[in-house]
Structure formats: structure tokens, C-alpha cells
Amino acid sequence: MAAESEADSNRARVGLVVNPAAGRDVRRLTGGASVVDNYAKRRVAECVLEGLTVAADGIEVTAMPTLTGIAQDAVEASPVAGDAFPVGLLELTLEGSSADTKAAAARFREEADVVVVLGGDGTTRDVALEIGSVPVVAVATGTNTVVPSPVDGTLAGVAAGLVATGVVPTDDVTTQHGTVDAAVRSGRAADRDRLTALASAELSSRSFVGTRALLDPADLRGGVVSRAHPGDVGLSAVAGAVTSEPVAGDDPGGVAVRLADPDEAERTVRAVVAPGILATIGVESWERLAPGDSVSFELPDGVVGADGERELEATDATVELRPLEDGPRLVDVERALEAGAKRSGFDVDATS
């Protein structure tokens, strides 16, 4: 961050992360999902900045730069940036990969009071790995969007401003989302034998990472989810179709699901496994897991995925999965707005 003036040192600090790759992968071609291009993301970022004017006198904003210039263009195009409140760019060496998001989140962990993230489950996961206890407003602009909310960027900015300035108590409007830890014992995964998923850790029999997207439901062998609802997408939707009660992201534990050929399984369900793909899935078994409970899967040759993306190739592997309660603190935008109204947060000068 740029050096602060004495006048700005008492301002609440808002971080902004925009993932240029979110919402543009191969699932836009093979499924029915729409493309979220860089112009659309820039406009959402501008809306976030507009919403933050609810607390203009009390905040400053720092955006993560990107090689594609989305954040830079949003700051330049926004009529409020630099006028209503100070806006700057994070000083960051860019690689053009998820490492940029993780590096920015690590900085924001020390330098921000709240962070607004524009992306999908993968982007939100990258932020979650480094953000610590800093509240996150996750706005869906990606492909798999089980965790981020499809909320208007302006409303997301308003919520972030209310939380950052303390107009609404953080504990009243945030929940801690769970994660899924995956430990892989395999020769081919020796250099990278662990990963963290936010909504779901999946096993696929397709033995290469390739485009990374988990597209063919016939390849799925099962996995563990931190949340289960038939209205989700991916393995979380499958789990939601078989459980008797939905499992929210902040509910303790998770659900393990083992899949089978639909023609041989005792139970089959229909679930949205990817945007635009409603598939028939064979379910061998499922079980509710308490926090820290682990289940093991044998994977002769395949890939371990996180949140709908292939991550680790493995052969002759044993994969141990367990749900944990160490995920990000997510801001519930609707609750934040309601709390803001109750606390006169929208009255003129109330946040000054």
C-alpha cells in the first residue's frame, strides 16, 4: 500500500480483489454457463466502489492490480474513486496466476478491515487460504459459484463499508465457512500432497489435470463437501440431493459421498454437476461427518479436485478427506444491510 497521510491513518481499510480468469474457463464452451468478461467484471468493481460511498468519510480502498488491468481500469473509470475516498493499488509483483490472489490476500490479512472478492469458488478459496479472520464479501463473477453470492456489486460495496467502519458489528453479520482438507499418499503427488477445498473436494478417475474443470460426471468417484444443498452446483448438489436435511457452509462437519455407475447403483439422483449440466448420478453411499472426521478413498489412477477444478494427479493413491471449521468469515450482505438500517447506518452523516 502507498504511504498513508496522517488524515487517512484513521480510515477503515477495504481491500478489493478481482480475478481476471474467473468465469472464462472451458465450462463456458462445454456447459451452459454465461461468460463473465473483463468489461463486466470492471463494471461490477465500479459498482462496489460506488456502494462504498455509504461510508465515504471513513474508508480508504486498495485494489489488487492484475495483468489485464481490470482493477486499474475500474479505479480510473469510477467517478467516486479518489474523490469520495482515497483509492490506491496494492504494490505487488504479478505472475498472472492464482499466486497473485494469494499474495494479495496475505497482504490484506495485515492491511485491511474487510475484503471484497469478485470471482468464483476458486478465487474465494485462494483468498480464504491467506486472509485469516478478515471478513470477506464474496461476489459471484466466476464459473462455479457455490460460495460467492450473486449479489449486486453496489450492495456488496455498501455492506463492506458498513462492516469496515464498524457501523454493524462484524460478528452479527458474518459466518465462518467450513473447508475440506485432502491428504494424498501417492508417488506422483509427492511434491504436493495436500490441498484445501472450500465447498467440495472431489475425486475423478480422469488421470490428468488438462483444462482443470471437472466436466464429465461419469469420471466422478465421490468426495467430501462442507455444504450440501440441491440448489448448489457440483458435488455439493449431489450431496444435497441425497441428504435428508441441507447442510449450510457454517454448519459443523460435512458430508461424504461415494458414487457409482448409475446402471449399477442402488440409488440414482439428478443433480447440477456443472453450469448447464444436469446429470444422473449413481450413489453408492453417503454419510454425515463431524468436524475432523475423516474418510478414505482409494484412487488407482485419477485426480483430486477442489471446488470443481482438478488440482492433483495421483496414482495408486489413498486420499483422506476431512471437513474442518477453519474457513473464511463471510459477510452476509442482506444481514449487513438490515443491521445497517437498524443502526441508522443509512442516515446522512451517520457514518461520518
Automatic annotation (TrEMBL):
Transmembrane regions listed in the UniProt entry: none
Organism domain of life: Archaea
Annotated Pfam families: NAD_kinase
InterPro entries cross-referenced by the UniProt entry: AcoX-like, NAD/diacylglycerol_kinase_sf, NADK
GO BP: any one term: NADP+ biosynthetic process
Keyword Transferase: yes
Keyword entries, A-Z: Kinase, Transferase
Record GO terms (molecular function): NAD+ kinase activity
Name by which UniProt lists this protein: ATP-NAD kinase
Species this protein is from: Natronobacterium gregoryi (strain ATCC 43098 / DSM 3393 / CCM 3738 / CIP 104747 / IAM 13177 / JCM 8860 / NBRC 102187 / NCIMB 2189 / SP2)
